[in-house]
## 1
Amino acid sequence: MDSPRSGTAQPANTTNATGSQRPRSVTRAAQLVTFLIALSIVREIVVLAGNWRDYFLIHDYLAGTASAADLESASNDLLTQLSSEWTLLVWFVTGVVFLVWLWRARINAELLRGVESQRRSRPWVIGAWITPVANLWYPYQVLRDIWRASAPKRPAPSLTLVQWWWACFLLDGFLKPTQWRLAQQEASEHDALVNANVDTVLMLLILGAGVFLVLVVRRITAWQTAGLVD
C-alpha cells in the first residue's frame, strides 16, 4: 500500500512522539548535496569519455593508425586516473551528505505532520539503503513520505519526480555490475564497444537520477524552509 499510516496530521508545534525536538535546517545540506551530485555526474562523464576513448584507440590500433605506445600512454594518462582514483571517494561523500539531509528532512516532516505521516520508523532512514531486499523499495517509501508530509498543500503534489528518481536509480543499480564486469574483461574491440555502449546507457540513468533527486531535494527543502525552519 502506498498510503502513509492512518492518523490525523499534527501541527508544526506538536510534541507527540517527537518530544522537544526542534526543526533542523536542511538548506546548507541541500546545497552541498546538489554540488556533490553534480560532481558525481561530472565524474561519470569522465568515465564515459575514457571508455569511448579506449574503444576508438583499440579500433585505430587494429586498423594500423595507432601504435602500442599510444595504448600504453592512454592507460596512464590523466583521463584514466580521474576515472578510476576518485570514484569511491565521490560516491561515499555524496551518500553521507545526502543521508544527513534526509535525516534532518525526516525530523522536520514528523514535526510538520506527525510521526504517523511516516510509514517507516526513523532508523529506516539509513537502514533502508543497506538492508538486502528492503533496499529495493524502502528508500523510495522514506523519501516519498517526507515529500508528502513536507508539501504545504493537501493533497500533496504529484509523486512523479520521486518516482522517476527511484526508477532511474534502481535501473542504474541493476545495470552497473554488468558494466563493471565488461570493463574488467575488456580485451578486444568488440568488448570495448559493448562496454562503452552500456556505460552510455548508465550515464543517461545516472544523469536522470541525479537531476530528479536534485529537484526533489530542492523542492522539499523549500517547503520545509517556508513551513517550519527559519
Note: Residues 1-17 have pLDDT under 50 and may be disordered.
## 2
Amino acid sequence: MELKTSDLTFQPLTSDGWADFEQLFGSGGGYGGCWCMWWRCTRREFEANSGAGNRKAMRALVDAGIIPGILAYVDMQPAGWCSVAPRENYGSLERSPVLKRIDSKTVWSIVCFYVDKSFRKRGLMGALIDAAVSYASAQGASIVEAYPTITLGRKLAPVSSFMGTSQIFLDHGFKIVAEPSETRRIVRKYLK
C-alpha cells in the first residue's frame, strides 16, 4: 500500500538522530556493512573498515556536525535514508572514471538510498528524492545530481539499486544529462 504524505516526516541526520540511523541500518550496517560510506572513502578504506569501521567513520562525520543525508520516518519510526550532500563530500565519486564531473558547476549529489524492508515498494524512495531536493535547495543548492542504475529491463535486488533507478528520478523532475556507461546515467534537477 502506497504511503500517504501525511504519514511521512524527514530529518537531516545529526547526532540527535544517530540512534534512529542505527536502528534503520541494523546490526549489518545496511548493505554489507556499508553504513553509507561507499562514496565517502577509498575502496581500500571501505574494505578495511567494513562493518564496525564504516559505522565508526559515519558516526565521526555526524558528530563533527556534517549532515550526510536525511532520514525518513513513518509514524515516527525510521523507515528510509537518502544520502545527499555537495558532490565534493564524496571522495570516491570525485575519483570515479565513470561518474566523473560533466562540467564545473557546483552540484549536490544524491548517491544512496536505504529503505527498511517493511516500507519498500510503497513510494518512499520517491518521497525521499523530493525531500532530498528540498533539503539541498534550503542549503543553497541550484543543481541536484544523481547517478541511477539503468535496469535494462531486469528486476534488481536492493543492493544493486542503492543509487536508485532512472525512471524514478525522471518521474520526479530530473533530466538525463549523460549516459557514461551501459548501466549508469547522470541526471540533474535544476532548482534555480
Note: The CA atoms of residues 5 and 127 lie 8 Å apart.
## 3
Amino acid sequence: MRLKGKESMGLLTFVAVLVFAIVVIGNRGGWNRFLKMPEPAPVATSVSSKTVDAENEGRLVSVQGQIVTDHPPEDTELGLVAKNAVVLARDVEMYQWQERCIEGVCTQREGWSAEWIDSSRFSEQIGHRNPDRMPLESKRFDAEGIHIGAFQLDIDLAIAEIGFVSRPIEAAELSANLAASFSISDNQLLSGNDPTHPVVGDLRVRYREVPGGAATLDGIQKSTRLTDPSATHPTK
C-alpha cells in the first residue's frame, strides 16, 4: 500500500522527531541515568571513640565504646530508675469494656486496651461503663547526657541501632506505695486484688528499655554529636 503525500510527510516528521529525541537524551546521559544501577550504601569509617576528628564532619562513622549517661532514665511517677539504659519506655494497658458492631448488631466484652475507650458511645451503656480516663498513661523517659567516648549520642540513633528490649521488674525496686498498689506477675505490674481475674479499671504496666554498655554504632558526625543517618545525607 502506498502512502499519500501528506501521510508520508507526517510519518517522516514523526521518525525525525523520535531520532532527535533519542540523540538528545543520549547526549545528556539520559540513557545512562536510566540504566545506571543504584549507588551502594556508603561504608562507615571506623574512628576512635576517644577523640572527635573534625576531618570526619558530616561523614558516616563507626564508633565502638561504652555508652554512659550523666543521668539514667527514670519513671518519676512510679519511682523506677533504669540505671544501665539510655531510654526507658512504660507501656500501660487498662482492663475495659469494648464494643464491637457488625451490621448493626453490637456486643460488649471486657479486655485489655492501651487506649482509653469512651463507653458513653456504646449502644448499650448499662453495666458497661469504663473509668473516665486512663489513670496512668504510656510514656517514654530519656536519659540525660548520653555519651559514647568523646561523642554525644543522639537518642534516635540509640533507638535505631540498639533497639528496645524487655526490662525486668524486681520487687526490690518498688516503693512501699507502689508495692501496696501493684503486684508483679509475668514481668509486669498488675493492679487490683486478683491479678488472675482482672476487673474493669485494673492496670497492666510493662517496661522496655534501650540498654547502654558496650556497643558499636554507625552514625553521622555533626560536631561532637553522633546522629541518626536515616535523618541526614552523609558526605561521601
Note: Residues 5-27 form the longest helix (23 residues).
